[in-house]
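## retry 2 of 3
previous attempt timed out at serialization; input unchanged, resubmitting
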Amino acid sequence: MTLPVWLFWLMVVVIVLLAALILVRDKGIRGGIAGMFGWVRRKIRIAKIKSQIQKENQKKEELIKKLGKTAWDNGVSAPSIESQLEETRKLAAEEAEALQKLKALDADIQKGRQEWEADKKQADERIAGLESELKPLEDQHKELEKELHGVDKEIKNIEKTKIKTEKDIMKTREHLDMVEADVDLSNIEKEQKRSEALRRIQSFEDEIRAGDESMIALMEKATAVKEKITGIEPRINDLDARIGEAREVFKAQKGQWEESLKRLEENGRSLNVKLVGIRKELDLSHQKTGRQLLENRNEHESLAPVYGEIDAVDAVLAKLQGRLTVDQSENSEA
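## retry succeeded, writing output
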């Protein structure tokens, strides 16, 4: 027989409560637990103190660099820092030279951009002007081509009609021959049919003549339209060529400008990299000067505030170091 689930968990809770009661009543166990928690708390406190000491040391290093830079900025001199100041002078000159080159490079880039914008504007205006001349000619050419196509279509229709009409004439003549050969028809009937056939043939021939006259007029019109097309095509071709040439010139100018800009930007990146390196060396040089001034304190009034800041950090470090020593001693005894 298995126990109900609720009864099982009730027994577990009871056992846990009994164990906790025993631990609370036993002084030795309580002391051990308290000691363990105290050790953990000290470890955490020691870690925090070490972190604070690290931050204060970093702050002190920055102040030492500030001390050296303040001495440089205010022209402080002393035998102990003279050799280091000479190195700083050299680096400062290199920094000034790099900054001057960067300034000149920026000026070249700006000048190049202005020249490129002027060239681009001029090229755009030239191409736009040529295109404005070309468009009406292209529109006219398109209309003439459309007109010529319409004329050609009319001529073909007339030619088709003429072929059909000639076939009708031929059929009518064949019919007339049959009438003439028909012995069963009286002379009056033949005359009637002959007259009717001849009238039809005459009508067909009139249609053909009218069609020929219309075709002549259309062919003359087509010739006139072709002459107009022939007259404007050289102008269109010339403008197309000039536009293409202008675009090629613009493309070449753009390529030259982009290549020039690329070189200038590469030079700028190189100078910036060099400048970053020089400034790192300058910071290091100020750091060295500051350490020497910290070892051999200088009475120059500009340095007094920085010395005060460093002394304040040293005081904080001394307190933190004392607390660290106490906690480490207590932890080792525990």
